[in-house]
Amino acid sequence: MAKSDNFNYTLPSGFNIELLPGEKRLELYCLDTIRQVFERYGFTSIETPAVERLEVLQAKGNQGDNIIYGISPILPQDMQSGEGDDTGSETRALKFDQTVPLAAYIARHLNDLVFPFARYQMDMVFRGERAKTGRYRQFRQCDIDVVGRGELSLLYDAQVPAIIAEIFSAIKIGEFLIRINNRKVLTGFFKALGVVENQIKTCIKIVDTLDKVGSERVKRDLQSIGLSETQADNIMAFTKVGGSVDEVLEQLNKKCADMGSPEDFTKGILELKEVINGVRALKVPEQQFCIDLSIARGLDYYTGTVYETTLIGYESLGSICSGGRYEELVGIFVREKMPGVGISIGLTRLMRKLLEADILKPMSASPAQVMIVNMQQDLMGTYLEISQSLRQAGFNVLTGFEQRSMGKQLERADKLGIPLCLIIGSEEYQAAVCRIKIMKTREQLNVPLVSLVEEIKHLLSL
After folding, report:
1. Which of 356, 391, 414 is the last residue before a domain boundary?
2. CB count, 10 Å around CB of 391?
3. What is the model's pLDDT at position 79?
4. If you write DSSP's letter for every residue of 43-78 in order, what string do you get?
5. Residue 4 pLDDT greater than 60, yes or no
6. Are 323 and 454 in a shared domain?
7. What Rg do the C-alpha atoms of the chain give, in angstroms?
8. What pTM did the predictor assign?
9. For the chain, how far is it from start to end, CA to CA, in angstroms?
């Protein structure tokens, strides 16, 4: 992109999220589709500030510490001593996800909310990550979470794949697979292998890199933290257990029994079965979900069900929607157990990937369905009246105000992707008719003005 002699108006590194009009319309369509599905399942919208106190964002130890953007006002020289600055000693920062702000939101409104609390957010978040292809420092994240007080039914975990399936089916991105696992299955298996307690989280993080680095690297990394070759081989074999959902569950039951039915392993299998039963009861097609024992989700706070969704044939795109169950994350500010389950769709990154892969295409640059061509200035009053009557009938209308050749005006409509152009000159005005030009076929129809609304409805429905 060019820049002037005086100003560099190129986008800062990592903030290249600007969309052309047709791409922005596609994003709005996706957001509206996602919102409709969220609300069909009873989720309510909330919004939290882009800025939180730094201590809030750091409440989960070092979670996010390396990517947090601090924020402070740019003060005039005479105010830099602190006078007139209302921040005082308070340090503020931009939110890097939606979950920690959700915890703070619940703490602030604890007595006003009804639990289980099911909310969705589709806000921008900010991360000071190293800028690279597919990574942004500002991006839109679409999250849902259900949070309970004390306990939360596993049927909420089962509902999540139904929501994911409905969203991606509606957006028509092609075939996808929702991969489901349970962290207790993994941790229980690791313990049964003799992996010591303080190595388990590290093991999970290493297994979580399997799709990115491959089996050999994961095996080496497991051995590098002190696991024996036999333990590493057993873990690698475990992550490769495959087959239908029922076949995987059968193999898990056998493996668990062979290892003496350790408590965490047994509990994880039971939770996984309950979730799968719920997913089936919610009529999610069998080809859209599976049990994948390699799904670990590297974040420490996941404690139960975990999900990742991949696009069939485009697995290199990575997970397009992920999440899971957690026990302690949301209750950090109120000091009580508040289990939750949720997922996140990083829409900015996902949409860019889908556009580049030609899976999704931009929409037309304009939402207008009809353009009124300005044939002559003395008929402008008529054009305005017709424009408004069509809007009142429910159509999106663009009115040509500039005096330009008809060819130029039709070219504009073509570039904007407007399907119909209405042409009324002196002859049409005298005859009380309108010439409709169908831009796709270049066909023209003469329609009485009294029948205009019905004819436009018909043409747009074809």
Report:
1. 356
2. 13
3. 63
4. -EE----SEEEHHHHTTTTTTTTTTPPEE-----GG
5. no
6. no
7. 28
8. 0.92
9. 40
